[in-house]
Amino acid sequence: xxxxxxxxxxxxxxxxxxxxxxxxxxxxxxxxxxxxxxxxxxxxxxxxxxxxxxxxxxxxxxxxxxxxxxxxxxxxxxxxxxxxxxxxxxxxxxxxxxxxxxxxxxxxxxxxxxxxxxxxxxxxxxxxxxxxxxxxxxxxxxxxxxxxxxxxxxxxxxxxxxxxxxxxxxxxxxxxxxxxxxxxxxxxxxxxxxxxxxxxxxxxxxxxxxxxxxxxxxxxxxxxxxxxxxxxxxxxx
Length: 237
Prior knowledge:
Elements: E1 2-8, H1 13-25, E2 30-34, H2 41-47, H3 51-55, E3 58-60, H4 63-69, E4 74-78, H5 95-101, E5 107-112, H6 121-125, E6 129-131, H7 144-157, H8 172-186, H9 193-210, H10 214-236
Parallel strand pairs: 1-2, 1-5, 2-3, 4-5, 4-6
């Protein structure tokens, strides 16, 4: 499993250094910076013994550019303002739940948003899974590097090999096909536009949280194709 720690539009180079330091504490080395601020000396100073993480960071202008360059199995977004039953795009899991589910042989992008504003709604909707840290209502928003450390710890403590060697894991493209098939089926169910959008988000998140094996993905894809075909045939009759 390769985990890309993706910092979206960091505003201070010192925080990039702190993030690198936390990454190295928990065995993470692949830092990605999206449209970052200028990397100044404090990025390397704050990184301490993790300077090479900053030096080797990959830099992209946009998230889409990064996604198209790497074979990502799952996109995990972080949010300090989780939603509830009536804010479906922001329904998260806890770091502990995330750590237990990330036991896969794939490439995972772990997104951290801007220091001031976090990830946008559009960026969150691109994610397969959202994770949020339970905090006090009096002061709920954490510093990004503190939040990252908690998430890294939960991932690290649950790290172990799959019980089956060389287990095939569904790729990001496999899950994208499943999502597209589901959206095609949902589009034929005569939902109002807002309910169709919510249903699509829910399906995408369920598929994302599942970390599906390749065999499961292919079987589910075949089933969804048959359902879609039956619906198409019934509409033609």
